[in-house]
Amino acid sequence: MSQATQIPPASRAAPSRDSGGLLLAVILLGQFMAILDVSIVNVALPTLRADLDTSGAGLQLVVAGYVLSYAVLLITGARLGGIAGHRRAFHAGLAAFTLASLGCGLAPDTRTLIAFRFLQGAAAALLTPQVMSMLQRNFTGAARARALGLYSAVLAAGVVAGQAAGGLLVGMDLFGTGWRTVFLVNVPIGAALLVAGRRVLPRDEGRRGAGLDLPGLLVISAAVLLLVLPLILGPETGWPAWTAVSLAAAAILAGVFVAVERRVAGRGGRPLISGRVLRAPGLLPAAVALLIGAGSWAAFLFTTTLHLQGDLGMSPLESGLAFVPCVAAFGLVGLNWQRLPARWHPRLVPAGLALAAAAYLCVGPLAGGGLPYELLTALIGLGLGVMPVLMTVALRHVPVEDAPDASGLLLTVMQLGQVIGMATVGTLFLTLARDAGSTRHAEYGTGWALAAAALAAALGALFLTRHRPTAAL
Question: Distance between CA 217 and CA 408 in Å, rounded?
Answer without folding.
Answer: 13
